């Protein structure tokens, strides 16, 4: 669904842009994803809208077909948010232990306390943390927007599947600049 509007109280959710993840092999340059996400962060902060910075420090404990579950050990700084995000005291910071940012955290409560009705989701990876967070937000009744050029994945087919088949069913999609433009137009109309 093409972008139509942003609610008055929309939050930006940035998924897993952290030191231990961004050195992976992504299908699109991670620097561009970070730059577009940072432009969104700046636009949201300029409008005094909530910015949520999410990192992952674990994984859900269930069994998988990919072998036995081992305990995860993270190297020093692995979970640190990227300095390019310029974490501010007013940002909501969430550490998750699963793919999605809602399932193992108090993020829904924190957004509801701020009157948030819509979320814009960016980050890595498209078919993992981004998709899981977007699905969970939609299931919790938030309107969902996905900044397609501010996300990437390690597998092209997974990225494309999420963009073509999942995202249109749970929200609206578009490029970061179009989201910023909608935010600007919405603010000037008030």
UniProtKB/TrEMBL annotation:
UniProt name for this protein: Isochorismatase family protein
PANTHER family associated with the record: ISOCHORISMATASE FAMILY PROTEIN YECD, PEROXYUREIDOACRYLATE/UREIDOACRYLATE AMIDOHYDROLASE-RELATED
Pfam families linked to this entry: Isochorismatase
Superkingdom as given in the UniProt entry: Bacteria
Originating organism: Paracidobacterium acidisoli
GO MF annotations, alphabetized: hydrolase activity
Residues in Isochorismatase-like domain copies: 10-173
Keywords, sorted A to Z: Hydrolase
Gene3D superfamilies recorded: Isochorismatase-like
């Amino acid at each position: 669904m093409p972008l139509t509007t942003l609610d008055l109280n929309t939050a930006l959710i940035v998924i897993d842009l952290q030191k231990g993840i961004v050195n992976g092999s992504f299908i699109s340059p991670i620097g561009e994803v970070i730059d577009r996400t940072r432009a969104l962060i700046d636009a949201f902060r300029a409008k005094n809208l909530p910015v949520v910075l999410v990192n992952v420090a674990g994984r859900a404990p269930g069994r998988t077909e990919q072998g036995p579950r081992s305990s995860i050990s993270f190297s020093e700084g692995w979970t640190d948010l990227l300095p390019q995000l310029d974490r501010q005291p007013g940002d909501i910071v969430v550490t998750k232990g699963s793919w999605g940012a809602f399932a193992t955290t108090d993020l829904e409560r924190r957004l509801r306390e701020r009157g948030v009705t819509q979320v814009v989701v960016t980050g890595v990876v498209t078919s993992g943390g981004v998709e899981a967070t977007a699905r969970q937000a939609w299931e919790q009744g938030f309107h969902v927007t996905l900044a397609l050029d501010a996300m990437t994945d390690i597998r092209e087919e997974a990225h494309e599947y999420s963009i073509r088949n999942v995202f249109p069913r749970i929200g609206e999609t578009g490029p970061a600049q179009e989201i910023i433009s909608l935010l600007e137009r919405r603010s000037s109309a008030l």
